[in-house]
């Protein structure tokens, strides 16, 4: 999937690709959950989430267990976008 600038997931930094894969395998997670699963720093995860949001492949929702946190999940995409990530 690409955004209006033509940037695809394959063009993102490795940290953003890792966060994408963590969300793909482990489902919706909070930022803290992504940090734990990916073993990246909180700052790196924040940056990766910003980049993924710019490309339009994730959505942010309220985490009802703790409204101070957000829940991130991948937006369903066509099969051609998944092929770009695996390259």
Describe this structure in words.
Helix 1 (14-26) crosses helix 3. The chain has one domain: Orthogonal Bundle (Arc Repressor Mutant, subunit A). By secondary structure, it is an alpha+beta fold. It has helices at residues 14-26, 31-38, 42-55, 79-86; strands at 29-30, 58-62, 70-74. It has a three-stranded antiparallel β-sheet with strand order 1-3-2. The mean pLDDT is 85. A hairpin with a 7-residue loop joins strand 2 and strand 3 (70-74).
Q: How many DSSP H or I helices? A: 4
CA(first)-CA(last) distance: 14 Å
Class by alpha and beta content: alpha+beta
> Would you report the number of β strands?
3
β-strand percent reads: 5-15%
Structural Rg:
12 Å
| The top level CATH class name | Mainly Alpha
Give the name of the CATH superfamily.
Winged helix-like DNA-binding domain superfamily/Winged helix DNA-binding domain
Proper CATH architecture:
Orthogonal Bundle
Order of helices and strands: HEHHEEH
Low-confidence stretches: none
Query: Number of domains in the coordinates?
Result: 1
Identify the strand order in the major beta sheet. 1-3-2
Helix content: 40-55%
Which descriptor suits the 3D outline?
globular
User: How confident is the prediction overall: mean pLDDT?
Assistant: 85
Main sheet: strands, sense, barrel: 3 strands, antiparallel
Write the CATH fold name. Arc Repressor Mutant, subunit A
InterPro entries: WH-like_DNA-bd_sf (IPR036388), WH_DNA-bd_sf (IPR036390)
Protein name: ArsR family transcriptional regulator
Organism: Haloarcula marismortui ATCC 33799
